[in-house]
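Protocol step 6 of 9: fold each sequence in the batch and record its structure tokens directly after the sequence line. For illustration, a two-sequence batch is reproduced in full.

Sequence one:
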Amino acid sequence: MERGILTYCSTISPSQCDGNGHLNVQHYAAIFDSAVGVFFARCGMSWRRMGARRLGTVAAYHATTFLGEVRSGDAVECRTRLNRVGTTSLTFEHILIDAETQRVAARLEAVSVVFGLETRTKVPIPDDLRAELIRICDCELDSQPSKVVEP
């Protein structure tokens, strides 16, 4: 089983599938977008908490690797893990898994940058938040991002 924080669970509906009968790419994006809000909240970076600190995040990089079909009726879950805490950014990975077979269907590597809401420029991750991220997500500080490798 993939490690990481459980950030999404659902069953794929026919309306999410394209003419080929599999999950349309726009819905992968929606699943991963929903997962990031849960991930940030679980890591101490909820929109409410960040807003109170006058901080936000912006997506700087997304790369999705599609590994297997997801079809109508499939139950899926997304697990998210933090791979790197930088000075101003986080590198994390969403893993979309078939809940029945535990087969990995897709991976999204993402980089989010922390920025000041007033200045609209990147800012260092506050020390207390950095410590919480590392404690909760058990990642290596400033390690190189992991490459997507399938078994």
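Sequence two, same batch, same settings:
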Amino acid sequence: MLVVVARQGYTATRLEDVAAQALVTRGALYHHFRSKAELFAAAVAARWGELAGEIFGLLDGPQAPLDRLERFVAGYVERVSTDARFRELLEVVVLRTEADLDLEPGLVDKQQAVGAWLEALVPVLDDAYAAHALRPGLEARAAAADVVIVLNGVTVTAALAGAEDTGLMDAARIARTVVGGLAR
């Protein structure tokens, strides 16, 4: 499904196109999914499920909290720059899903995903705050929100850039800049 939506956009994608790409019948799709929107949500969730564990796993480890955060940000940017499947997912979610009433439940999913990102980042930044590693006046939740906002910017930039242009994103530099802006 994501390959077809990346090529045609959500609105122009027909289940016949998806079935042809998947080498199944349209009836087979309807056997498992009630609608194009349901299939799309399942495809996005499945692809994100494949990738999220690796990305969020970068926050784990015995290193100092801001070192783990820097590794996470660099890993995300590197993944955006080098992993075609990840970039395709981002392009589909950011650029190729036009306003469509059928996708409104997906907007709720996106909002919940932002909440999940915050919940993954806050404990790391709580540790940084407790270690007096965050700059004065910056609390963990605000720092986590800043990281999510920057990564959303990376996401949009990568989705708008062609695959050849994402090489301009220097993962280590971006991670140092982000974490350096949060650090004491």
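Proceed to step 7 once all outputs are recorded. Observation for sequence two: Residues 36 and 135 are 47 Å apart (CA to CA).
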